[in-house]
Each structure stands twice: as structure tokens, then as C-alpha cells.
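A note from the maintainers: we've had questions about how concatenated examples are separated. There is no special marker in the raw files; a new sequence line simply starts the next protein. For clarity in this README we add a label.
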Amino acid sequence: MTRFAAMRLAWFLLCLSSNFIVYATARANPPTVPTPNRRIVIGASTLLDGRGHALHDTRIVVEGSKIVALDPKASPVDYDLGAFTVLPGWIDSHVHITWSFGPDGKNAGAEQTTQFAAYQSASNAWLTLMAGFTTVQSVGSPRDVPLRDAIAKGAIPGPRILTAIEPLEGKGEKTGTPDEIRAFVRKQKAAGADLIKIFASASIRQGGGMTLSQDQLNAACDEANKQGLRTLVHAYKEAVRATALAGCTEVEHGTMATDDDLKVLAEQGTYFDPQAGLVIENYLANRERFIGTQGYTEEGFAAMERAVSLDHDIVRRAVKIPRLKVVFGTDALAGSHGRNAEEFIDRVRDAGVDSLGAMISANSLAAEAMRISDRIGSIAPGYEADIIALDGDPLKDITAVRRVVFVMKGGVVYKNVPRGAIPVQK
């Protein structure tokens, strides 16, 4: 079978598998999937608006895909969420939505075009949505594109996806001249990229050394800015400062950056997305499934074990830097799709992040970093009706993020379960 034929087959199966999911969900709980453009009223006793404010005893009025009013007197109430905490659907700034384990249970990466990989991608999207994440930024694989487009058309269920498609891999001089890098950026835009992903450092498993020169970084981020695209840069150590000075949009990871480096991010207005725990916890929990696959060695795992405390440290220091905008991203990949909210717990429990700040980082602040804060990330009239509810109050008990009982995305309810349906885990 040719690669093109395999991709077409995978795409067909992706659509087919997801249609089965939608059908099964509708059969199991018909009232949870409303007719488009139906007026819906949601009752909320406690509502976190995504911008740092708490509202009480109000009702959200939804028409079509949009929130049209917050009206305490609106009636009749279609969904009474008075026993829960209501907030905007979460935004994960860094996932790899098509990255899965293969039929043999081992790491298969994000580039597979097999039937099995297509089913797994549909499953990853569904699990992520059910966990309360209504928008994700997947960075990046060409396999993201058909999934993104199918979800956007309503053909299959899943979170709203923004994708970088093909990343710019830092390989020193082999990466190309500044002009060649600019051409690469333009190529990604022509292919439909929503943003540009750049690797300015090696993996933490290989020590995290810088892999692009300042001139190369300058060219990549300047061209992206000219093309109206944002840039997310995988960076450790000295590459963090270099990224900010190049005018890039956001730094990912940032482990081993100094406080002075972080202050440069704040001064330049560069967003920062460090990971406090989930990504490495997932690797360690699935060690045998990764070891022996491309890029994963015993030495690399030893390096990741050493990085756990460093990751806690970078998040702890980052949130103390004045004006540094720290957004929420998990680096979710095979093994962690649908468990994205564990990163909230890591940030609050292990890195000392304020619970309300953690929620904002996955709501209005993440939307701002994506330049779509006028559409998502808040519960207010005119915004997309991306609304979730938790069985518990995350400001008092951060583990409440594990108990998502209600999910609406774009005015469509995909999940609606009773209180107590999800067991409490501490």
C-alpha cells in the first residue's frame, strides 16, 4: 500500500470510528446532544469566569454556539449545575494529540498512518474532550490536520485543535540558512499551520543544549510574525533568553533557565509554558513502553528522573517573576491523553501555584497567548459556549479537576453525569 493510500484509509477509519463514538454516546444519553441553535439555560451556584472572578447564583444563556447572556432570572433551566463549580472549558497549550501506543503496546509516535493509529487519534481527541479540555494546541504533526478539520466541521467529537503541522527541528547549521528557514515558515503557513513550532534545544534526555543560533531563531520568529503566525519554542537553558530576544511568542518547558532568563521573558512579553510533572510522570509510569523506541534510552530516562525536581523548581520560580505570563500546557502524548488535568495538581501541590491562577492559566490567559481571547477562555456574552462543571471546588481542593461531570463545547453538550458518578481520588 502506498503512503498516500494508507493516509486516505486512515482518514476514512478516523471518521468511521468517531461516528461510532458519537452514535454510542447519543444512544446512551440522548438529551445531552441538543439540536443546533436551541436556546439553553444553565443554572450555576458557583461560576469561575476564567478571568479571576467568581459569580454566584446566576444562569448562563446559550443560543447556538455562543453565550448570549448571564441572567439570574433566565428560565426554564435546562441544566441545573447548582451542585457543581462551573467554569470555561480548559485550554491545553501543548499536546501531541495523534501520539499513541501501537498495537504491540509500545510507543508509536505521532506519525503513523495505519488503521490502528487512526482509531487511536479519534480516541485521544474524545478522552481529552471528556476531561474538560475544549481547546488544545497540538505541536505538531501533519497527522493533526485531518483531525483538526474533521472536528471543526462537526464530523467527529473532540476539542478545538490548533496545530503547527511540521516543526522546525534545530540541527545547528544543518537546519538551514536564515533565508531557508524563512522559506520553511512560509511553507507551513501555505500548508494550513495555525502556528510554528521550533526546537531551539535538544531534548532534556540529551542534555537540552541549544540547537539553533540566534540568527536562525531571529529569522524563524521574524518571518512567522510577518506571516501572522505565532511561534512556540522548545527551549532549555540559554535558549530561553535567546527565544525571547528573537521576538518569539512562547517558550515551552524552560527547565534550567535562570531567574534572569525568566525576567527577560517578562520584559519581552513572551509567554511561558513550563511543565510541573505530568509529562515526566507519564514517561516514568510507561517506561517499558517507551524504552527501545526511537529516542528513548536508559540514559535518557535517568536524565528525566533527575529533571523532576528541576521542573517543579522552574514552575515555582516562574510564578514569582512579576509580569511573567505563565500559561497551562501538559505536553500530553501517548499514555496521558485524557489525564491532562493532572498537571493542575502537580502545579498546585508540587510547585506552589495558586489554585485560581492555575485555572486562569488554562482559561483567559491561554486564550490570550493564542490570540483568540475574544472568542474563548471566558464565560461572558459573545464567547463560545465552552462550559464545564466540576464535582467539587478546585480553589479548595485541586483534585476536583479530576471530576469533570459536564462538558459543553460550542453549545453542544457532550457529557452530563450526576454528582458522585466520578469517584474521589486524593
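[label: protein 2]
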Amino acid sequence: MKKTLLFVLALLLSTAMFAQNRASLLHETFDGTDMPEGWTINGLGTSNWSIVHSNKAGGDANELKINYYPSFDGISRVVMTPVNLTDVESVVVSFKHYLDNFSGAHNIGIATSSDGSTWNTGWSQTYNSTGGGSVSELISTPDMGKENVYFCIYYEGYSYNINDWYFDDIEIFTQENLDLKLVSIDVPNIVNAGVTEVSFTVQNMGATTIESFTIETVDISADYCGTTDPQTFETNLAPFEIAQFTLQISFDLNPGTYNIPIDITDVNGTVDDDTNNNGMDKTFNVSAGIAQRIPMIEHFSSSTCPPCVNVNYAMANLTAANPGKYTYTKYPCYWPGAGDPYCNDDTRTRVAFYACNAAPQTFLDGIDQGFTSVTQGALDEHYATPAFADVRGAFNVEGNTINVTADFMSYFNMSGINAYISINEKTTTGNVGTNGETEFHHILMKMLEDGNGNPLELNIGEYKRFEYSFDMSSTFVEEMNDLEVSLWIQDPVSREIYNSHFAYEYTEHCYPVQNHQMTEDGNNLLVTWEAPEQGNPTGYKVIVNGEVVEENTSDLSYTIANANGICIAEVIALYGDKTSVGTLSSSIENNEETPCNAPTNLSATVEQNVEGFDYEYKVTMTWDAVADAQSYIVYVNGEEFGATNTNLYIAGSDNEGTFTFTVSSLCANGESEQSEPCTVEVVSVEELESSFIIYPNPAKDVVKVTTVNGQQSTVKVYNTLGMLVEEIEINSNETEINVSDYNPGIYFFSIQTENGNVTKKIVVE
């Protein structure tokens, strides 16, 4: 007997168990570092296409890019592996793209070829400005219906006038009549604690206008996790049209990590033709607090770059007008020509990180601003956006050695993040090149440890300290008393920067408070802390649930009177006009000691040959929902097999055998113990029928039901009209059922067990 079950995850609200209807002919997400196997470049620009580690088109890294250099004027095609279009009259081609435009207008299009040399255009579009979006087009060319058809995305124009064009998530598929796709769940990756609304985006991928659709999700509020009532949305969504909607319920969320699933259950009052794109889930963090965001500016430039002059001038004006509203590091690059003589390995690392290929280029909080300066509007927007992490540091200089101490703090559970420390010289003159400039600002000298940053793993309210002493004599530094230190926290995959700050210059580090705690004091909560391990703060700022309750207190405690619900207190040490990072305490800080309850009343039923189900046997498991559970983990025969956000799980198997199921709860503070086991015997209908004998047949007064193993079961008796006549529980090897009061005729005895159901026809005379 095979020991493996083929599982199908099935949330209560999911339809993913059904077979795919539409034909997906090609789907490329560029996960590798090389051009996909079988893809070629046709026409001009054979060296302009590449796979780069970026996500400018809107998908996940990596993505396809065409670069301006070496320049050409004409058509360049990236040709995909051929697909079989026998009996296919048309297909949909969809992709994401982003144009970084230099000047002028440019065309991209989709074309097909059945011989690899004659190309038939199926769609084209002219673009003349920087920006991106999604393309979904129904393609019908003379190549339709043929066995081997090549598709290409082509660029047409003078390549020198673009900077780059990015493409991702290319898919070719046949169009269904009724097909609504859930494109995204539009909740930010991090939100502040409290009431949160969740929006989502859908796209009509079918040929029929969508007039209504219904979705199901779960309530992810802290005290309850269960299915919400179905929500129906009225709309008028034409083919390929995209629209955003907001859930009709909102969630009051405490700090932690949450996962919300959304599933489209019907479209225009019926089942969608393609259910495979109807559902997804989104994991996001809820922050315990916010900090003032200081936008991080990264600027790639060169003293040999003529266009850099105007951008440097504009950036100097911007920073002069916004003191205290930015952090800045400028990378001297190695192009054009010989490049800036102050370029170093850390600059090269950051060039590769951002996939830069020209100067000038600016980034604001990790977001590409193009080959221009950061605008006042963009800086203001970022400065006004709350941050969910904070950073403080200080440095001093002893001879040729710089000493840096930096604290990086997070208000959410942070993992896979890097802390970056760059030592810059405020003004340099020794790197004069060929562009006419005589002085340069915020020039990178060294990154600590290097340009790859420092791994950072933080739980809510934690901080991590980095301390470095570095001999600057190995760098291009001109004046040791002219240094600055930039600090920032960044996701190395998405490139999102969570916050930044210049380190305080030539001073002692602003150490945070110690032993910050919250305890119950009758109906009140007492917040206490100890003075920092070093330094002499002038006072302390206390913030409770996002509101400042003490601006500058010398006390080492604060009382929250008549506290209700969850309280989060932050304490910041003040050093005149300088501050430390905050520390947190919470009224729920002991949650980790409270075990997550295991599910109870686990049961499982087996059905055979269920219409619309992909496997011979369908096993349906249910259990009582657990308060505070965010999800559940299902185990089979002691091995983890799947997870669900509801108290229902469906598994499929083509094999018979004995299977033991257990379920655990997953709460904010971890996984519970496993439930009491539930064991089922997956057997064939024939084997199950042989374990029961019903006689006599025909019968007059009594029908006897015998079983070889005495298994508990239920007998439901139905007449020929489908009406339930009687229901009897069986708990012994033989049970008598009195049929003397039955009207003569045919009856169906349905024996229902945890291992499946058996139905037998009995004649009563």
C-alpha cells in the first residue's frame, strides 16, 4: 500500500480543487538569472536584452530588460519557445512592463511567426513617458491554428532614447467565456495597529462582461478567526478591465503577523470558467508603533558625467531647502569612460544591487527616481509617510579612525532585512574629472562591513546595536573632520527602505533605556524603566498607544490609569535635541507564555467518486475553531501535509489504506500541541459493502443490519421520492429495524460510516 496521500488544500472558501479549464500555453516569471531555455533574440539589439535582479515592472525579481546600449534604430525581438496552436483561433497575451524613458516615443508590440522569419503583428502600442502597467490583449493572427507558433515581444525605435524597458510575468493562454482573476490583495506589507481596511484588485480575463461576483474571506481579528459572510459586489467590468474593491468589513488588529485569504466563489451568479485564478492570500505585519520617516536618498553620479552636473546642482538646492528631512549617500561611479577616480568596491556593489547602468540616477527610499534629481514633492510625500522602524547612531573620530555606534529598532517582526552604514565625506575636491565640477558632496568613502549590509532580525520592540572602528587611511578621505555617517534599514529583495538617519556627529551615542517593563497595579498598568547603560539623558518621552503622554519627564515610571484593552508603551531617552531609539512594553507581553489551545472534536468522513473532485477518495476533516488561531496545520500519519485558515480541510487520495489525522493551531505566540487523533480507513465501495449485510430482502416486519466489525454507523432510510423515513444509530454487530409500519414498496437504506457510505435497495412487502 502506498503511504502517501495526494492532498488538495481546500479552505472552506476555496475552489482550487477543481481542474483547470483554460489552457496556459506559456508562463514565464524569469526566476532564473539567464535567458529562459529556448528563448532567442531576433533582429537588432542582440546584446541589449538581459535578465536582471529588479522588480520595476511590478512582479517579483528577476525580470527581462532591454537596455539602450549599444544603440540601434529599428526592431529588436525577444522570441519565446514555440507553442502548439492547433485548433486555437485566438489567445490572450499578458505581461507587466515599465519604461524608463530618456526622450521621444517608442513602440512595443506582440507578434507571431510560424516559420521564425515572417512576423505578423498582433498588438502594438506607442509610449512616450516614463511609467508602466499591465497589458492583456486578445491576439489573432494568420499563425493561429498552426502547430509551432513563435511569439515575441518587440521593441521598435531608437534605443539610445530609452534608458531601460522592463518586462515580467509573461503569459499566453486561451480565453474563457467567464473568467474573473484575483490580481492582488492590496493591503500594505506593514500597517499600524488598529482598524485596517483591506482592498483587492480583480481583472476580467474572459470574453463576457462581469456584472457581479461574490468573495469569501476570513475574519483575521485577534480574538476570532473564522469565515465571514459572503460579500457580493456589483460592477460592470468589460473584458480585460481592471478594478479595485474594498472588503465590506474591516479588522481591528493587534501587533503581529497576519495572513488574509480572499477567494472568488461565483461570477455573474454562476461558477467561473477558470477557478484557478480565483484565490490568493496575503501575509502582512501589524506594527506596534510608528516613527518619523527620514527619507533615504541614494545618488549614482560621476565626475566624468556631463549630465550629472545639472542633477548635482538640483540636489544641492533640494537638500539646502530641507535640513533634517533627508539622509544622503552619493556613489561615485566608474562610467562613462574612465569614470570617477573615487569609485570603490562598495559603490560597485550598490550599482549591482540597483542594476544601474548609467549616471546620473537617483533613488528615494529604494525607489528609482530616474535620471533626474529627487523632486520636492516626492521628498515631502515620503517624509509624511509613517515609518515602522527607527534608527539612531553617533560617531567620533580619533586620528584616522572613525568609531560608529548605531541602533536599529523595529515596531514589527522583522526578518531578512539588512542594516546599512555608509561613511561619506561631505565635500570632496580630489576626484575632479572631466565634467567641469570642482567639488562634490556626500561622497561615499566606505560601507561597514561592506556594500552588502548587515543582516538584521528583530521582533517587535527590539533593537540591535552595531559598533565599528575603522581606519579611514585606506580610503579616499580628504579631511577626517568632514565626515558624515548615513544609516538605513532596507529589504535586500524588494529594496524597500524602512527608515534612515544621519548619525549624530562627533558625539557620544544616545543609548536607549534599560529593563523597560509593564506590570499590573490594581486597575492600572505601571510602566517602568531604568536609565541607559551609558550616557546622561536630559529626560524621557513616553508614548502610549501612539499618543505622547509625557514630553520630557525625569521620572523612571509612568502609570496608565484604568487601562482597557491592549496598551503599548514606548519610552525614548532624550539627550537635548538628540534622541535614542525607543523601547516597548505591552500589556500582552506575556502572551508567549500563554499556550495556544489545540483543536478539539476532530472528525473525518470519506466519500468515493465525488463528481467534480479530482481524486477517487475525498476526505473531509472538520474541528471546532480555536479562539486566537490564525491558521491550522494538518498532520497525516505524523507528517505535516498542509495548512488552512479555517476549521475545514479536504484531502484527496487515489489509494486505499489507514490514515491518522491530527491538527494543531497556529497562534501569534506559536503552534499548539496536536489534537486528539482521528483515524479513518479509506476503502473501496466494494470492500465497504461487503462489511455490511442487510436481510431479508424482500422484508415484511423486520430488516436486520449486520456488520463484521461492529463499527459505529448511521442508517438513513429513504423512500423512492427521496424523503427521509427513519434514521437509526448502529452500535453493535447486528441491529433490527422495524419496518412493519412502512407502506409496501421500495426503500433505500443508506449506511453512513466515517470510512464512506453504502446504499442498498430493500423491498418491503
